[in-house]
Amino acid sequence: MARRPTDRLEQAPAARAQAGRARTRAKPEVYVTVAGQKFKKPDLDVHFAEAASGPARPGACTCDAVDTVCSCNKVCTCNPQGCGCVGYTSCGCESHAVTGGGSVGGWCSCNKVCSCVPVH
Amino acid sequence: MAELFVIPHGRRYLLYAPLARAAALVNEAAVAELRTGLADRETAAAPWLEPLRTSRMLEGGPAPPTYPASYGFAPHEVTIFPTSDCNLRCVYCYADAGRLRRRMPWPVARAAVDQVVSNARRVGAPVCIIGFHGGGEPSLHWDLVRRATDYARDLTARNGLEHRIHMASNGLLSRRQRDYISANFSSINVSVDGPRDIHDRQRPTKGGRGSFDAIMETLTDLDERKFSYGVRSTITARSVDRMPEMVDFFADTLKLTYLHFEPLFYCGRCVTTKWQAPDERAFARAFGHAMARAKARGASVFYSGARLDTLVSKFCAAAGDGFSVTPEGDVTSCFEVCDSRDPRAGTYHYGRFDPSRRSFTFDAAKLARLRELRVDNFAFCRDCFCKWHCAGDCLAKVLPAGDPVRHRGSKRCGMNRQITKLQLAQLIETGAQEKSHGQASD
Fold first, then answer.
1. ipTM of predicted assembly, 2 dp
2. Which CATH class is domain B77-364?
3. B308, A40: Cβ pair inside 8 Å?
């Protein structure tokens, strides 16, 4: 079995961290940052449909294929009731599982099929 | 607690905020300052922190992708397992397909389609999705596949709904079947294990012959028809070092830009054939090489346990969302648990076809328990930088009894973490190149 991961900043080994601080009085440095648009799906956020009622389905969108990025930058997390992006007039779904019925399935406020859970 | 993680990267560190979609390459002193000094106003305002402030990674990001406390069960997608029979004898088959020859009776398939159409109407969903998948090879029960497809098309049309049809297949399809598929299906997924020698060794026919030629004929035909299909390759201990070569093979042979690799999981027929899973480190290393090769060829590779571009709290639909029906009429949330005698069926089978009512009955309590199998309920995963990507990994593999407290990780954790880190490092590397190009042009 695997060892339980301890990756959080707060868990960075104190002794090592202090050693890093003290060592030659090195200055903290940030060499590179990547954020937002550098990630494939920038500024991901998640929204859920209301369970009791179907979300409105305004507008159209263009993404319905593998590796596309939703035009509203929202990730669609499917559930059997419907899926995210509710309230956005121009949005879409991400699709990792285009085949094989491997997806949860779902639909998006933009009327596109949403299959955002990968096959395995 | 902010979702901010530190990952050693050579002599430096990757600072990663998955929910904020931001990462940075920093030195040890920066980690030390961040760990001990962020609460300190002077440190928090330090100029060196400016790039991190700009990327908003210190804020921890938006809320995690968790699910609502409760939501109704009304799937408008069903995956039908038409048969447990198969004309291949893949050495690693999780279902040991072909050993039994169960076939789904038509009333079960019809009830499954009725159910999702009814649900779609009830919740106002515009589309129904019908999938055909294993246990066995769906196309061996072709009458049922055709009948269910025609029925779904007519029923959805009568109800003002759209429909999509998908199928996972071993690719042994006749021309007539391909004609029908290309005219009626949205896409299919075909298992191909790479060049001929690998494929024929791992995926022989029932009679022990190679299946490579027949499957490549299918894929070439689909290419000519411009029909959408995907390819999935299972990587074994014997083939793991050839993953980069497999990328070249597919890129040279087929019109594919997206390759799906999965490591063999020791179960099913492996128990008798003794074929082994690849070493986790070897798989991660080879996947890294395959990533680089794919990038150079304008393609990409995918593995379900490492999904940097995805934020989820469930690995897949097995956590109480999947509606799949076995040939016997059992409802399962997990593709891999397709036999009622599987010890995991007690966890993942949550319903059954009722012939007297011609519909399905569901066990609401089981469904509720399945829905608890989310990464936010796995203590083991709490402090892992991959948690919102692999979401605790494949439940059938790591949690056969379905008890979230028993999640203790698996050998796959190391593989998932290593590949996700590789993907992160690749992003950083691209960022660094862009930065140096920017400086050069300034």
1. 0.88
2. alpha beta
3. yes
